[in-house]
């Protein structure tokens, strides 16, 4: 009987000792303890073991707004970059007739295309500033060019340089047709009027020094007396001054005349410059 009681007390003591850990893990943390599950594979998690997690607010994809049919970008009309001149329609008509300066609409209203054409015309004949405005000088030059016709020169079929004093223009003819020009010139001022008549070129120098006026005369081609073709040394559209009888040319035109004409080429000078 005493032996039985002793055995029962020992079993009870062992049972109480196994449950003393405060969170059920104390024994597992003790060195040398081996769990009953050591060496066995861990159980596969079940679907219910994964907690539900609310989706992140940034994870949600906002629907794209529908494109408006009017949202498609459109091209703005080209802005006019130069002012309208007081001779807009006249210059438009002249450039349309002369041709070679681009598209021009003859309606008296400045447009980007008109602006571009007028600027091109101004640059060609050195009408400053090159602003595309149809002002008095642009109108004057365009009208002078229109009036400079082949019939005014009375040239034959050979190579001929024509000088129109009335319109202050020059051009080159060959075979009875204009082959270069007309373009602008400036001839003798009051007291130094350029001689009129039919002449021949008889002296040519790439750069002639005028002892009388102390100035270099590029692309010099003598026509009559001490007068001839040469590149202008001042602003050619300054009508308040003029040459001392010579036929002033823009740089581009001076080179063209030099390369086209030769010693013995006929030169016809006619008309009269205003004020001389």
UniProtKB/TrEMBL annotation:
Region annotation (Disordered) maps to 20-85
Listed under GO biological process in this entry are: cell wall organization; peptidoglycan-protein cross-linking; regulation of cell shape
Keyword Ligase in the entry? The reply is no
Which GO cellular component term is one of those annotated?
extracellular region
Which keywords, in A-to-Z order, does the entry hold?
Cell shape, Cell wall biogenesis/degradation, Peptidoglycan synthesis, Signal, Transferase
Identify the PROSITE patterns for this entry. LD_TPASE, PROKAR_LIPOPROTEIN
Q: Does the keyword Signal apply?
A: yes
Q: Which Pfam families did the record assign?
A: PG_binding_1 (PF01471), YkuD (PF03734)
Q: Where is the signal peptide?
A: 1-17
| UniProt pathway | Cell wall biogenesis; peptidoglycan biosynthesis
Q: Which CDD domains match?
A: YkuD_like
Q: Where does the record place Low complexity bias? A: 45-80
Active-site residues from the entry: 230, 246
Record GO terms (molecular function): peptidoglycan L,D-transpeptidase activity; transferase activity
L,D-TPase catalytic domain spans which residues? 159-270
Q: What is this protein called?
A: Murein L,D-transpeptidase
- Can you name the source organism? Catellatospora bangladeshensis
